[in-house]
Amino acid sequence: MTSFQVQLPDLLQYKRILFIQPHPDDNDIGAGATIAKLAASGCEIHYLTVTDGRSGSDDPDLSSEKLIFTRREEQLAAGQRLGVHSFHWLDYPDGHLEDTESLRSDLIWSIRLIRPDAIITVDPWLPYEAHIDHVVTGKVVSYAGLFSGNPHFFPEHLSSGLALHRVEAIGYYATAQPNTQISVDKYWTHKIEAIRCHQSQFSGESLQFLEDYLTTQAKTLAVHAKRGSQFVESFKLLTPLMLHMNTQAFSM
Ligand SMILES: [Zn+2]
User: Fold this and answer.
1) Separation of 189 CA from ligand 1 center, angstroms?
2) Following DSSP, what letter does each residue of 38-64 receive, concatenated?
3) Does residue 251 form part of some domain?
4) How many Å lie between the centroid of ligand 1 and the Cα of residue 161?
5) In a domain, 159, yes or no
6) How far is CA 243 from CA 19, 249, 250, in A?
7) How far is the CA of 22 from the centre of ligand 1 (A)?
């Protein structure tokens, strides 16, 4: 009988990580404390935001242009608190993201340009995830991570000066199937401070609810992780190979 041992990626070993979010705030909510921890340890953190955030308001009188500008400023302030190295924007219309050739090309182009060891995004296979921007972002980022090293995918990138690039790991936050727990005690307040920068999204009761929800979740994860830490963020980390025709990836 043979045994097939699979080595899961180790998030804390990477030197450069690209966090790709559907909207300006998802990275901070899903992974902010881990991002602060990685940045403090010398890992170069890059942010790529896929949509422009224009739909993130219930106020019908607020113009798209104003909200897009505000949310970008909020994301810059939040990311700077966490130690983010650079910010990139694709500016697809918020709320209407589709899996298009253009989005696939833009994501593979970004990976070939930034050349991260790992890419992290939202988990598109989260049960009951209804936001189409999250499902599309998670799936197309996974596709991009699978093929950014293949010369037959968007060869025009190469003639414009970019080189092929293979990522070592693809990871997901806001996941129902985590396989990685990161202790973030020293960095929990960084995350809360970053979330408070998104004033157009969270204030008063909604901010209090989000902080309470995330803090309770992080404390519960810490109890289950049994590491003696107070706050934990969890991720699903896979290698690109695990993301195609792999029947074990779900339970890994
Ligand atoms: Zn979002």
Assistant:
1) 21
2) HHHTT-EEEEEEEE--TT--S-TTS-H
3) no
4) 32
5) yes
6) 18, 7, 10
7) 5
Cβ partners under 8 Å of residue 239, min gap 6 = 9, 168, 169, 170
Give me ligand 1 centre to Cα 112, in Å. Answer: 24
227 CA distance to ligand 1 middle (Å): 30
CA atoms within 13 A on the CB side of 100: 9
- Tell me how far the alpha carbon of residue 26 lies from the centroid of ligand 1, in angstroms: 5
Q: Would you place residue 58 in the very low, low, confident or very high pLDDT band (cuts 50, 70, 90)?
A: confident
* 213 located within any domain: yes
Q: 201: CA distance to ligand 1 center in Å?
A: 11
**CA distances from residue 190 to 31, 83, 196, 219, 248 in whole angstroms, order as listed:** 11, 10, 10, 16, 35
Question: Per-residue pLDDT tens for 203-213?
Answer: 999 999 999 99
Count up the domains in the chain and report the number. Answer: 1
Tokens of 69: 């500008």
> Is the pTM here over 0.90, yes or no?
yes
Q: Which two tokens stand for residue 167?
A: 């990522």
Any idea what the CATH number is for the domain that residue 161 is in? 3.40.50.10320
* Distance from the alpha carbon of residue 229 to the mean position of ligand 1, in angstroms: 28
Residue 1 resides in a domain: no
Domain that holds residue 84: 12-243
| Cα gap 16→46, rounded to integer Å | 8
CA 111–ligand 1 middle distance (angstroms)? 20
